[in-house]
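Narrative of accomplishments. A recurring question from our advisory board has been how the design workflow behaves on a single, concrete structure rather than in aggregate. To address it, we present the structure tokens for one chain from the evaluation set, followed by the sequence designed for it. No filtering or post-editing was applied between the two.
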């Protein structure tokens, strides 16, 4: 009595099998969601901070060089944050370690920029 072998084209992989190293996915859905909402939050923060700086410049006596420096710093922070969000999203989607590493470095620089505008600016 011979036993028939199953047809290889009809065999489906078991969904309970452990993932192989070739199929491992390292991208993160929570990180992508946070990057998405940070992209929505950034323009609102930027516009409100510009408006607040202009309002404070009208009411308070700024030193001559402080106001232009704070505006240019906010523009630079906006571009830094855009680059950070782009590299973080691209690095997360493509699972590219260099983009994720630069994203983490820009996150530290961006955190200091936001700390400046929350704590250390001329008139808080």
């Amino acid at each position: 009595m011979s036993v028939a072998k199953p047809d290889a084209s009809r065999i489906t992989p078991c969904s309970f099998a452990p993932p192989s190293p070739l199929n491992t996915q390292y991208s993160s859905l929570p990180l992508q969601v946070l990057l998405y909402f940070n992209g929505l939050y950034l323009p609102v923060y930027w516009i409100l901070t510009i408006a607040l700086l202009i309002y404070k410049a009208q009411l308070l006596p700024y030193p001559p060089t402080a106001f232009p420096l704070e505006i240019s710093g906010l523009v630079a922070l906006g571009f830094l944050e855009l680059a950070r969000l782009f590299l973080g999203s691209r690095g997360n989607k493509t699972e590219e370690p260099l983009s994720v590493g630069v994203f983490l470095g820009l996150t530290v620089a961006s955190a200091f920029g936001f700390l400046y505008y929350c704590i250390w600016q001329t008139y808080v």
